[in-house]
Amino acid sequence: QAAAPLHPVAVQCQEAQVVVTVHRDLFGTGRLVRAADLTLGSAACLPVAQNAAEGMVTFVAGLHECGSTLQMTPDSLIYKTSLSYKPTPSGNLVIVRTNAAVVPIECHYPRKSNVSSNAVWPTWAPFRSTLSAEERLMFSLRLMNDDWSAERLSNGFQLGESLHLQADVASGHHVPLRLFVDDCVATLSPDRNSSPRYALIDLSGCLVDGRSDDTTSAFISPRTRQETLQFMVDAFKFAGDDRNLIYITCHLKVSPADQAPNPLNKACSFNKASSLWAPVEGTGDICSCCETGNCPLYG
After folding, report:
1. Do the Cβ atoms of 84 and 44 come closer than 8 Å?
2. Residue 33 and residue 20: Cα distance in Å, rounded?
3. Cα(89)–Cα(294) distance, rounded to whole angstroms?
4. What residues contact 147, with CB distance under 8 A and at least 6 apart?
């Protein structure tokens, strides 16, 4: 008798799909289960391939197919499904010789990322956060031209001009996602914790730079797409420092697009005319903590 497989169920969490490989010696007894008795998810999807010689069955499903569910934690998007084995009598028999079994399956995808613009001047080479081994979402932060139609070619600014910044996430085949900018900080070195530092966006999505009397900094509303968030920041320099290199580092995150924005997932600008904070989407009350400073923060 061949040795029983050590791991009868193997899972690969890929960028847009999950691949589940099942050894038909599911219980390690040497008795092979019938491929027709194996299904994936609440929708009972059937296997797409069988290898009779090796006794293997393979399922392939999109992340939100076959009845999978999505759970969002502070750090991850978790797609949950299950492999089910329900033995059916063979032939005319009314008995079965194995128990039913359910194997829970989860795929975890990090939902946050830090992205840096690199130096605004003299070079601009966006740092795209992607790590295929962990199947991270791809975030980017780009400097755009004044009509947002293309990436800006020049990286120099005069005081009095505005920076047009665009954050994006490539969501691939995930469920529809909405992008938020948790915070953005400007520094004179690539280290976001260096001094001096100036917060442009803070408090989980409040564009605090726009609260100053002499600025028009704001998020662009409405969005062009849920996976994109654009904002304008008036050009500035650090007082008492002649260096003309400024680094802007932003912390981006996503939430499911069908989840209503809240004080933790928001994009709020200060409206000078009304002297009120206003969200790109959602109800105005989600921005009230931008004024009081007590917005919820992830650790």
Report:
1. yes
2. 16
3. 62
4. none
- Count of positions (residues) in the chain: 299
Angle at 213 between CA 209 and CA 215, to 5 degrees: 50
Going from the first residue of the chain to its last (299 residues), give the mean pLDDT of each consecutive group of 10, the final group possibly shorter: 64 89 85 89 92 90 91 86 84 62 88 58 34 59 94 87 93 83 92 92 96 91 96 89 86 92 96 95 96 82
54-92 core/surface letters (b: 16 or more CB in 10 A; e: else): ebbbebbbebbbbebeeeeeeeebebebbbbbbeeeeee
- Give, in order, the Cα–Cα distances in Å from 204 to each of 56, 86, 96, 168, 261: 47, 47, 56, 17, 11
In whole angstroms, what is the distance from residue 47 CA to residue 33 CA?
13
Six token digits for residue 126 = 């966006």
Residue whose structure tokens are 């790109």: 280
Q: Are 269 and 232 in contact (CB under 8 A)?
A: no
